[in-house]
Write a structure and sequence with these properties.
By secondary structure, this protein is mostly beta strands. The chain contains 3 helices and 35 strands.
């Protein structure tokens, strides 16, 4: 499936890297890759037309910290995404190095946690993942933190531009061994949250529609209390028009939970469920055939790839991305060179210094369509749902708000169309219920969809 393209990584130091997030950092309308460096500088990789170059200013490079997780979203409604970086220097509980929350102000990046008015908001608990949440559908997000050994936190800005922590108010301040997070309209019309935890049951927070949550994992049969969750991905695994969950458990059975009848049911076949040292999990249509594949990034053992063939999830040939000796810590996908095919980038570290690796998906003649919904402020509408209808199939995507463990994918709904380029309709639904329908859009393009006036 994948071919190695390491020569395109023009700045690729051998260091400890962890999470990766995809966001437009320099404000030019194109997406970059923010790579968390642990004890080393963070990288900001930009496609230049001939390769990926590190353009991180010193503030974002932040060398010598302990960055592991990263996510982006627009928390102040200025149309530009802020960047949250988890710095975790201990396994659990209290830590010394605080997180960063970078905001672009007056031409440079400022850490909001470093401002005097926010000094009481600093997170000094070991975090594992961060996701964007628009809990009340107003187009302004908060950063939700899965902490390990301390309460989960939700940071937002108040009307005075000050950081506030609203986890308790929202009903989210649970204490556990937090690991992976996703946020999207999963079981309600609003942005729900699924948290895969370690050493205890998972959490499923259902959005009540008023910005508060109730925890319903037991009712939905997704506790999985004796495993150790890591990466999570969201997809419509059986084509029934509802979102399902695939996630990895550290050296335990991996899950493919299908949503039916108000509950989740695990249908993972033996090959997919087989335990591994799993990190990031990605669901994406890498070959543009109209069916998403599932990628498992492992540390110290081969990566895995699965696809739906004849109504069964089977192991696919992963090609050069197997990386049997790779110390995988994070991964992300996106179409950075604009050719309509997804690239896969993998970070390595934790137990040894390794550079990043880059892979291209197979060249083919399949058609594609990419949809980028925007908030009322012009930022990526993370958590929006995009439905694409073709004569022979319907596909469903959620704009990524925080992809499982440490990472965050591009905020674009990428659809492979296979050999049939006919698209009858595209429906975009925002977290507040606003909807736009596009009739018969042409294939092989990126469509930006504004929030309806």
């Amino acid at each position: 499936m994948f071919s190695r393209k390491m020569s395109l990584l023009l700045d690729n130091p051998t260091q400890l890297n962890y999470g990766i997030a995809v966001t437009d950092v320099d404000g030019d309308g194109e997406f970059e890759l923010f790579v968390a460096g642990f004890g080393f500088r963070n990288l900001l990789l930009k496609w230049t037309g001939t390769g990926y170059q590190d353009i991180a200013p010193l503030a974002l490079a932040d060398p010598g910290r302990a960055a592991i997780g990263v996510a982006a979203c627009d928390i102040d409604g200025d149309g530009r995404e802020e960047i949250y970086v988890l710095n975790t220097d201990t396994f659990a509980g209290a830590k010394e190095l605080s997180d960063r929350l970078f905001d672009f102000r007056a031409g440079h990046w400022v850490d909001l946690f470093g401002l005097p008015e926010n000094e009481n908001m600093i997170n000094l608990i070991a975090g594992r993942s961060v996701a964007a949440v628009d809990r009340d559908g107003d187009g302004r997000y908060g950063f939700f933190i899965a902490n390990y050994g301390g309460p989960m936190l939700l940071f937002e800005l108040n009307d005075r531009g000050e950081l506030i922590e609203v986890g308790a108010r929202a009903g989210l301040n649970h204490i556990t061994g937090g690991r992976g997070l996703v946020s999207l309209p999963l079981i309600s019309p609003h942005m729900d949250i699924f948290a895969a935890n370690e050493g205890g049951p998972n959490f499923l927070f259902r959005n009540r529609g008023d910005g508060t949550y109730e925890e319903v994992a037991q009712q939905w049969n997704i506790l999985d209390a004796y495993e150790h969750g890591r990466g999570i991905a969201v997809l419509d695994a059986n084509g029934d028009g509802r979102f399902d969950l695939v996630y990895g458990n550290w050296e335990g059975r991996h899950r493919l939970f299908i949503q039916t009848g108000g509950k989740f049911h695990d249908i993972a076949p033996p090959a997919l469920a087989a335990p591994s040292k799993v990190r990031t999990v990605i669901a994406a249509d890498f070959d543009n055939d109209g069916r998403e594949e599932i990628f498992f990034n492992n540390i110290g053992e081969p990566n895995r790839l699965f696809g739906l063939r004849l109504d069964a999830w089977v192991t696919l040939d992963i090609g050069e991305a197997a990386e049997p000796g790779g110390l995988g810590t994070g991964a992300a996908v996106g179409d950075f060179d604009g050719d309509g095919r997804l690239e896969l980038i993998i970070a390595h570290g934790e137990s040894g210094l390794q550079p990043l690796s880059l892979y291209h998906s197979p060249q083919n003649s399949n058609s594609w369509l990419r949809v980028l919904p925007l908030t009322r402020y012009g930022a990526p509408a993370r958590g929006a749902v995009v439905r694409l209808v073709q004569p022979d199939r319907t596909q469903l995507r959620a704009i990524d708000a925080g992809s499982g463990y440490l990472c965050q994918m591009e905020p674009v709904a990428h659809f492979g169309l296979g050999s049939n380029s006919t698209v009858e309709q595209v429906e975009v639904r925002w977290p507040d219920g606003a909807t736009v329908i596009l009739t018969a859009p042409e294939a092989n393009q990126l469509i930006k969809v504004d929030y309806p006036a």
